Amino acid sequence: MSRNPNSRRWRFTPLDAAILAALAGGFAYVIFKAATGLNYHWNWEVIPQFLMRYDETSGSWKPGLLTLGLLTTVRLSLWSGLLAMILGVFIGLFRVSPILFKRQIGGVYVGLIRNTPPLVLIFVFYFFIGDQIMTLLGVEEAVYGLSEGARHVLGWFFGPMNRFPRFLSALITLALFEAAYIAEIVRAGIRSVEEGQWEAAASTGMTRGQTLRNVILPQALQRMLPALAGQFISIVKDSAIVSVISIEELTFQAQQLMTTTYRSFEIWTLVLVMYFLLTFLCSLIVRKLELTLNR
């Protein structure tokens, strides 16, 4: 009887202990040399105020600049990931369409995004969307026309509403960029389903749309899920690039603090840890989801 590979229990072997000890020793050596060998005066005492600070005016604790930046990064990643997923699925379906015109639209979009430097795309998309589309749609006027209660509720989802037009521009920019990669994941997932599945569905009288919805996509989704989850983690990391267009996410806040405090090593070390914890948490959730689907 064959055993399910997912049922194997992980064992901590002496080799694992040796590798772990070597890594810990190497890390400790780097920390020791950084603390004693560099011509730099470390000062970690100034760092906690960037995470949480006591506001004497209100008499309560408030999130610091890095915490606010982290929250903006999370909001930006979630919303742009959701929008990129919707757009990427449509483009991915275009890529496998039997209609030549749709395949060409999908191919041009993916080719344009994947063969252009992301920083250039960010500037082009942001200034076009921010300066032209947002003005045309009257987003800023609409935000200022909201009631105080509506602005407070929307602020939980999108951050401070006085910065909403810029946040929305960055969100759309990031989503347009990431959708090209999600489209390729969707295309590969659909292509991975055996041709016999299409033929069997067609023999029962299903149309192409019914076959996609009821037969192909449910199977393809399970195969795409690890790659899609990995792409979402990439969105979290790629969100740092919008710091160049002054979106106040984690990297931008770190740059501002570094300019005013000159605590470069402490700030960037903390930002590194914050990004790692955020993406590592996403990885654990993805792993849990994969195990659940494989049962």
From TrEMBL:
Major subcellular site: membrane
Protein's UniProt keywords contain Acetylation: no
A GO BP entry: amino acid transport
SUPFAM superfamilies cross-referenced by the UniProt entry: MetI-like
GO molecular function: transmembrane transporter activity
Membrane topology: Multi-pass membrane protein
Function: Part of the binding-protein-dependent transport system for glutamine; probably responsible for the translocation of the substrate across the membrane.
Residues in coiled coil: none
Alphabetized InterPro entries for the sequence: AA_ABC_transptr_permease_3TM, ArtM/GltK/GlnP/TcyL/YhdX-like, MetI-like, MetI-like_sf
Name assigned to this protein: Amino acid ABC transporter membrane protein 2 (PAAT family)
Gene3D superfamilies hit by this protein: MetI-like
Span of domain ABC transmembrane type-1: 70-286
Native organism: Pseudodesulfovibrio indicus
Subcellular location field: Cell inner membrane; Cell membrane
Keywords, sorted A to Z: Amino-acid transport, Cell membrane, Membrane, Transmembrane, Transmembrane helix, Transport
Transmembrane segments: 12-32, 76-96, 108-129, 164-183, 267-286
A family per Pfam: BPD_transp_1
GTP-binding among keywords: no
Family statement drawn from the similarity comment of this UniProt entry: Belongs to the binding-protein-dependent transport system permease family. HisMQ subfamily.
GO cellular component terms given for this protein: ATP-binding cassette (ABC) transporter complex
